[in-house]
């Protein structure tokens, strides 16, 4: 959880309502502080669908979410004079989250994606409510949302209810500077009037998969970067361990035409090009090793499969970004219909798939690190890459740290989406647990970042110990950015420096600055 403020980017404005948002636009708003504005077309749709809800508001025939209770209480008919109270009560009761505060970027993504659905005109929200929500997001007001509360069906109810509560002027928020304030105070300072919810609006504000989708969008962007980083770190390990790049030849990978595999192999070829270390053992008469270990030889197959899984996740995210998730929904031809589109299964599955991918990629990375530290397998390097083995322990315990993270990643790979605990008196008898899948995926991404950082740190020292032989220009650019070899020193700061290099994208930028764009 982070309390840091998101600096508002007034130069970058994302228009909502013309068509589906892109993954990059979600990240621009969530992390980059981009402002949003509603299209005139979307506002016209909002007004049209609201007129339909207004006609039903006084109807004596029960309509779910307008004149009935919710969930298992859907059979309860609500008298006319209590129907607006029904909406306020819904938000207050459903804002029932508990546990640590989730990251500001997650809340901003959640708000944006709910606004995007509201702007389709399929929810029956009023224009005044929608524009107030937009103003709250643009003012940098971020409701306090908690770790626990969503079962991923009927959408992310508790997280979205905390956001809606703030729109009503109630509950805690963080202002644009990151300070915790009462929502009413923060809205007043921003010149925004609290919303008095009317029929159907409470339900429209909370019935969506926006939190889990927001986490998926950000995870996709993060994992794209990390999978390019994986290819660079693998190349560094292949080079430092005197492995061969022959197995990355394009014609070999064309025999098994998986797109991701071919891209990873191409990255490895590019990064390893012109390596003096590699050329030193290219002559088969001088090199007795017939084949490298799997963690070197099969690097493109594993990282490539991860890329293909990520591509599937991007497809699912793009479909969800084009969706209008609510229940009931106002159809294009004016009907108000119940449905099950709020179920988070499509998003939950891919969130879990990515956690599985991360665990496996990290596991292979750790195996490459371990080879560097074992004098029986590291092709002539010092034990543990220590400056003076025995006096110095080198990177012995860095591998312990890496192994501990990989073990945690394997636990996080256990799918959340296979679990379901019935709720709402068995009315909601199957749920997706997609929010939980998103929460653990964020921890998985942090773990992979740290595992790759330790592999890069280790490989850089291994490469340095091959002197006077020089590494490839691509790997050399990364090695220069990492701490160099020497006697034992306080190692945690070196690891954190490597983590920053990987997480910021600087490791990729250093390599690309020499070899050009990598896939």
The CATH homology group name of the largest domain: Fumarase/aspartase (Central domain)
Radius of gyration: 26 Å
Number of strands: 9
Any guess at the CATH architecture of the largest domain? Answer: Up-down Bundle
Mean pLDDT: 94
Q: Given the C-alpha coordinates, what overall shape results?
A: elongated
Largest sheet: 3 strands, antiparallel
CATH third-level topology of the largest domain: Fumarase C, Chain A, domain 2
Termini separation (Å)? Answer: 31 Å
What order do the strands of the largest sheet run in, or round the barrel if closed? 4-6-7
Helix content range: 40-55%
**Total domain count:** 2
SS class: mainly alpha
Pathway: Amino-acid degradation; L-histidine degradation into L-glutamate; N-formimidoyl-L-glutamate from L-histidine: step 1/3
GO molecular function, one term: histidine ammonia-lyase activity
Subcellular location: Cytoplasm
Keywords: Histidine metabolism, Lyase
